[in-house]
Amino acid sequence: MSGRQYVVDERGLANTFAIEPKMYVQESQTGFTPHAELLNGRLAMIGFVSLLLLEVATGRGLIGFFTNLS
User: Fold this and answer.
1) Which of 26, 41, 61, 70 measures 20 to 30 Å from 50, CA to CA?
2) How far is residue 2's CA from residue 32's CA, in Å, rounded to a whole number?
3) Which pLDDT does position 10 carry in this prediction?
4) Pairing label, strands 14-15, 7-8
5) In this predicted structure, what is the pLDDT of residue 1?
6) Do the Cβ atoms of 7 and 21 come closer than 8 Å?
7) Statement: residue 18 has pLDDT above 60
8) 8 closest CA partner among 25, 40, 16
9) Which of the 8 DSSP states describes residue 7?
10) How confident is the model at residue 19 (pLDDT cuts 50, 70, 90)?
11) Partners of 7 in beta bridges
């Protein structure tokens, strides 16, 4: 019988808990992974361009933007 999901022991009793799932090790996704570095670089570029656009639009930099708002 193919696809049997149990094992019969020496006394002829079915042991349905004998077949265990395949074990695998999942690699850690924290730290300096290539994906994290790409995301960090892209977010830094977006922040830098946003600061440049703020300065062009208002004529003041980031610190000058929050001082003397009146």
Assistant:
1) 70
2) 46
3) 80
4) antiparallel
5) 46
6) no
7) no
8) 16
9) E
10) low
11) 15
Hunting for tokens 């994290």 — which residue is that?
36
Which residues lie below 8 Å from residue 64, measured CB to CB, with a gap of 6+?
A: 58
| Two structure tokens written together for 31 | 């730290």
What predicted TM-score, i.e. pTM, was given to this entire model? 0.51
Q: Cα dist. 30→27, 55, 69 in Å?
A: 9, 35, 41
Residue 67 is classified by DSSP as S
The type of residue at 46 is I
| Total length of the chain | 70
Residue linked to tokens 């300065």 = 55
The one-letter code for the residue type at 47 is: G
Give me the amino acid identity at 16.
T
Q: Where are the alpha helices (DSSP H) in 9-61?
A: 34-58
CA dihedral sign of residues 54, 56, 57, 63? positive
